[in-house]
Amino acid sequence: MMSLQDIGSNGKEVQPKITSRPKQWTEEIENLYRFQQAGYRDELEYKQIKQVDGVDRWPETGYVKKLQRRDNTFYYYSRKRECEDNDVQKVKVYAY
Amino acid sequence: MKRLTKQRVPGLPLLPAGLHKPTHAGPPAAGAFQERRTKPTAFRKFYERGDFPVAMEHDTKGNRIAWKVEIEKLDYHHYLPLFFDGLCETTHPYEFFARQGVHDMLEHGASKVLPVIPQLIIPIKNALNTRNKHVICTTLKILQHLVVSGERVGEALVPYYRQILPILNLFKNLNALERCLEIICRLQPPATRWILLSMRMRVMLCVCQWYNHLSKFRRWY
């Protein structure tokens, strides 16, 4: 399975083909939760739509700190975990 | 059996008819714990004028603030005291925006919070003086966040203890005081934390009593 880092180097938009639902919380799930709260599938779609190279993250935890939404408003996230155990199954994991 | 009639003085036990009833009432209630109504805050006026760069978004977990401007670009000297002023509010959406807005600004303010501390004292004091338990708890949580929001913020609050802490004496029998003690502990280095805590609380109580005595002397003169 191709990883997210290998895709997008040619600048073309790629569409995910398979999704799965996580059963346990991880740091990757936490970041996915934050992207999906802001209206994006994942980090790749955010970078493609907003034309940015990087995402603001908390230095201590690596969690996403700030995202700009499609209507150009900003969502700010805590340095601590925000995705509760009840919310884990709502997160969608996209595979390319 | 004769029915006992109700006494004129409330609060006293009922006495059988014919016995001597006290005619004088005790001192009136001081109303120390009564909630104080606050006048409309500046936060409400600015919010209704549309001056705040915030919008409410509803999601599965409740409400969330969407900022129209990046928090890092906001003028903290202008906005942060206004958001603190909104802590007195108890109605939706003012209460939500004030509380969550303050938390967001403290979380992402870094070094911009320290210079604004003197302007935050009066709003904090007004919020604590409302005697509204919900407002007090919210304000104490924000104080907790404030002292860890940046470097030297705790030290910057020390000169203002005498303005903020006395109101907490009213609630010393409630769980709120434990939260107050927790906040005060965070303001000082760990080594001297507990010693200074007991000293400061005693000093504050002494200061309050001294002010009371002084005001009595001033009336005589």
Query: Which H/E pattern describes the elements of chain A?
Result: EHHEEEHE
Uncertain spans of chain B, ≥5 residues at pLDDT below 50?
A: 206-221
Mean pLDDT of chain B: 77
Q: Biggest interface: chains and residue counts?
A: A-B, 15 and 15 residues
The ordered string of helix (H) and strand (E) elements of chain B is HEEHHHHHHHH
Helices of chain A, by number, come to 3
Q: Please give the largest β-sheet of chain B.
A: 2 strands, antiparallel
Terminus-to-terminus distance of chain B: 59 Å
User: What's the pLDDT, averaged over the residues of chain A?
Assistant: 84
Description:
The complex is a heterodimer of chains A (96) and B (221). By secondary structure, chain A is α+β, with helices and mostly antiparallel strands. In chain A, 24% of the residues lie in helices and 17% in strands. In chain A, the strands form 2 sheets. Chain A has a 3-stranded antiparallel sheet, with helices on one face. Chain A has a two-stranded antiparallel ribbon with strand order 1-5. Chain A starts with 17 loop residues before the first strand and ends with a strand. With 221 residues, chain B is mainly alpha-helical. In chain B, 49% of the residues lie in helices and 5% in strands. A two-stranded antiparallel ribbon of chain B has the order 1-2. In chain B, strand 1 and strand 2 form a beta hairpin. In chain B, helix 2 crosses helix 3, helix 2 packs parallel to helix 4 and helix 5 packs parallel to helix 8. Chain B is elongated and about 75 Å long. The C terminus of chain B is likely disordered.
